[in-house]
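Possible regression after last week's pipeline update?

I re-ran a chain I had predicted before the update to compare outputs. Posting the input and the new output here so someone can diff against the archived version. Not blocking, just want to make sure nothing changed silently.
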Amino acid sequence: MLLPAPLPLLLLPFLLLLLLYTTLKYLQYARLRAFPGPFSTGWSEIWHTRAILSMRSHVRYKEVTDKYGPIARIGPNELLTSSAPLLTHMSAVRSGYTRGAWFNRATRMQPGQDHVFSQLDEGRHAKRRQQMASGYSGKENHALESAIDGRVEELLDLIRSKYLSTSTKATPMDLARKIQYFALDVISTIGFGQAFGDLKADADLNDYIVSSEQGLAIVTLSGALGLTPILQWPPVARLLGPSEKDKSGFGRMMGTARKLIDARLDQPTDKRSDMLASFMRHGLSREELFTEALLQILAGSDTTATALRGIMLYVLANPRVYAKLQAEIDDVVSSGASSASSVVSEATLRNMPYLQAVVREGLRIRPPVTDAVPKLVPKGGDTVVIDGETVFLPGGTNISYCAWGVHRNKQVFGDDADQFLPERWLLNEEDEHDRERLAAMKRTTELIFGYGKYQCLGKPVAWMEITKTLFEFLRHFDWSLATPEKPWRETNYMGIFCGDDMWVLVHDRGVRG
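New output (post-update):
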């Protein structure tokens, strides 16, 4: 007859498992115990998950670096930094740091298919950037500026035809949505050679914008909860994900992109001047073209639209800046430097110091992308100097980017770093102190577009879109906020902003030249 085991023996396996779990958690905690952070971050992802799901991660991140310093802990293997020198060090061309998988893998458009942003293999990433650089820079896309000009003119025509207010009638316009239409039409024109047509229709044709926001919400949820491997498992992705056969939404966008690419693959590229032709000439395969096209559409439109929204909001909220910028624009027009019959040229914009300062300051005060883009410390660790202090970073640690903390750093930008002040960029370059300060500010704000081997390929395109649109908006129209008590509705999806309800009143200045 077998007797029941004594109670202590029954508890032994449980106690051993508890001891093993506690030991592993302690080792996990101890590995980064030199870095302070919010409670629980040493052994749990709860704080970071809540920060991402709050849809205000940019604010949560800044609160952490403000409280705990330029390197803080936000998870068992996660650090966060507001140090621009460390960020440039990690992204330098010859850096041994690589991309963190949990974040970049979540940005895939298709299971198992990487684009230039989600690619973790450094060699493949470098090759893809080389293949795509000419298309983004305009070296093989000679119609780049004229294509953007065409969409700017369509945006101005849309405003004139439907949304002008008068002294006797107010006609509110959702500027956020019109800018989104504009950005989508620009990226589809320079990417595929034809616009989606949102501006002409004054509508989100095929629900591209709505579906992209839904997709970003899913990416946020999967990234925050660690569900990416499950949701990107092919059987699950086929069941729950969009299909190229869908009649609207992201699936429709995928189907449209596929048809355009397949049609172009059967044609010669020597007479074409757009990004797709350039990518084809540099050897991208059919699937690579498809994946990069989807990234272009989503990332290229959302970020530029966000930048324009932010700059316009701060200009409209600062009458002194508004008047000074419009005066500079009027001086350029009256001097004949900008043609009466066409959109201002990029060459003219480069010689407008105040407009350039306004754009730089707008991007600084509200960076259009605040994604964490974590970098992985090389095997063996790395020793760096942060604010004069030597710090050892253990190998295999993820270090994320605190955008709000970097670009509102009072040591770099001054005690008024939380305020919108374009004049901070108009320092006297003949003075050595001012010259050094200006150089430090520029180095820091360059991180808005990434840096080194991770710099955004679309930076020249975005800058051209933003500066041209801002110039033409204030050349032709007078602007005001229709609902100043609530200027917009905006959500941060793990670093990408989506917004609408930015209601404005637009009055024609009667200027055509």
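Follow-up from reviewer: compared with the archived run. The chain is about 55% helix and 10% strand. Marking as no regression found.
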